[in-house]
């Protein structure tokens, strides 16, 4: 009789344990479905992590997967699905998506469960930096020189894609440049035909310093000088002639300004009360934006005496 009582007592205890577990599960699901994160809030899309990528390799595959969780979790950043690539060689693999444990979560599932991953050998190459002019300098200006710093960039990527790259190119807009201009410009990989090369390439540095030197378009021509005097010689004398040496100068400047120039006047030469010929050095005044060569000339002022019979007339 005692043995039967013991068996009945054990059955009751086991039944209570089972009921307790069931009640705990029901309470758990109630908390999940009725708590701060209700139904539908436990499916998240998160970044897929590629772990243990072999040295010198590049992994390519899906960037995100969907993770469904049963439980109470606070931060989606705690959810970390991953692919383990330890010991893998170059090739294409169908690999399971694993999930690091998430605190407060009882069950998890990932969709898709397996993903296709491509492992490619990495290659490095150094290529020159070149440029395209996307906007020409303003009218009357011309590009003299372009300097890039650095002159070369390091390209890293899979062998097939990297092998297509022959240069990196930046776009330079000079539409507002009138002197020395400095730009910080991003570069893009190009092939031998100047076409963009894409496919997970890494460019170091990704931006370069560009120094563009823009100057006015220069023109030059020889322009005659015209002597201008002021005042009157002393009584009994008159101005006979002013000779300039040289009689013309070279003018250098923008094409438009040079072409518009027909002659250049000297500063005023004072002959007031002069009673004999004399020579003076004159400093020429260049029109704005132009240069004169030479900038100084000699002026020979020749006076002559008025004859008595001319005075009587």
Please describe the structure with a list of short key phrases separated by commas or semicolons.
313 residues, alpha+beta, RNA Polymerase Alpha Subunit, Chain A, domain 2, 3 domains
Overview in brief:
The protein is of the alpha+beta class.
How would you describe what is shown here?
With 313 residues, this protein is an alpha+beta fold. The protein has three domains: 2-120, RNA Polymerase Alpha Subunit, Chain A, domain 2 (Beta Complex), CATH 2.170.120.30; 121-216, RNA Polymerase Alpha Subunit, Chain A, domain 2 (Beta Complex), CATH 2.170.120.40; 218-312, RNA Polymerase Alpha Subunit, Chain A, domain 2. The protein contains four helices and 25 strands. Strands 3, 6, 9, 11, 12, 14 and 15 form a seven-stranded mixed beta sheet that branches. A four-stranded mixed beta sheet has the order 21-17-20-24. A three-stranded antiparallel beta sheet has the order 1-4-8. The longest helix has 33 residues, at 2-34. The radius of gyration is 45 Å and the shape is rod-shaped. The termini are far apart.
Low-confidence stretches: 34-41
Q: Tell me the fraction of residues in β-strands, as a range.
A: over 45%
What's the N-to-C terminus distance?
174 Å
The CATH architecture of the largest domain can be named as Beta Complex
CA gyration radius, whole angstroms: 45 Å
Series of secondary-structure elements, N-terminal to C-terminal: HEEEEEEEEEEEHEEEEEEEEEHEEEEEH
Task: Tell me roughly what share of residues is in helical segments.
Answer: 10-25%
Instruction: Supply the number of helical segments.
Output: 4
Largest sheet: 7 strands, mixed
Q: Output mean pLDDT.
A: 84
Instruction: Provide the structure class.
Output: alpha+beta
Count of DSSP E strands?
25
Apparent shape: rod-shaped
Oligomeric category:
single chain
CATH class category name of the largest domain: Mainly Beta
What's the domain count? 3
Query: What's the CATH topology label of the largest domain?
Result: RNA Polymerase Alpha Subunit, Chain A, domain 2
């Amino acid at each position: 009789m005692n043995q039967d009582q013991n068996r009945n007592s054990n059955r009751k205890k086991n039944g209570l344990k089972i009921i307790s577990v069931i009640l705990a599960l029901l309470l758990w699901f109630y908390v999940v479905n009725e708590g701060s994160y209700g139904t539908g809030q436990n499916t998240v899309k998160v970044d897929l992590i590629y772990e243990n990528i072999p040295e010198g390799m590049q992994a390519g595959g899906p960037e995100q997967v969907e993770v469904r969780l049963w439980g109470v979790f606070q931060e989606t950043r705690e959810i970390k699905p991953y692919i383990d690539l330890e010991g893998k060689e170059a090739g294409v693999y169908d690999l399971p998506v694993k999930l690091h444990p998430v605190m407060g979560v009882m069950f998890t599932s990932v969709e898709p469960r397996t993903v296709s991953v491509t492992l490619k050998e990495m290659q490095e190459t150094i290529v020159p930096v070149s440029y395209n002019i996307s906007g020409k300098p303003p009218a009357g200006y011309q590009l003299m020189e372009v300097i890039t710093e650095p002159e070369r960039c390091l390209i890293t990527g899979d062998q097939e894609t990297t092998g297509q790259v022959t240069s990196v190119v930046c776009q330079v807009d000079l539409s507002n440049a009138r002197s020395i201009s400095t730009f910080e410009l991003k570069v893009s990989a190009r092939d031998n035909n100047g076409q963009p090369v894409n496919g997970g390439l890494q460019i170091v540095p990704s931006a370069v310093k560009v120094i563009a030197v823009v100057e006015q378009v220069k023109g030059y021509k020889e322009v005659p000088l015209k002597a201008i005097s002021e005042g009157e010689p002393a009584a009994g004398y008159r101005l006979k002639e002013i000779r300039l040496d040289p009689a013309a100068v070279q003018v250098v400047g923008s094409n438009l300004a040079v072409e518009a120039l027909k002659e250049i006047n000297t500063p005023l030469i004072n002959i007031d009360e002069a009673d004999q010929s004399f020579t003076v050095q004159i400093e020429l005044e260049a029109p704005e934006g132009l240069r004169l060569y030479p900038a100084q000339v000699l002026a020979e002022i020749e006076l002559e005496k008025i004859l008595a019979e001319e005075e009587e007339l």
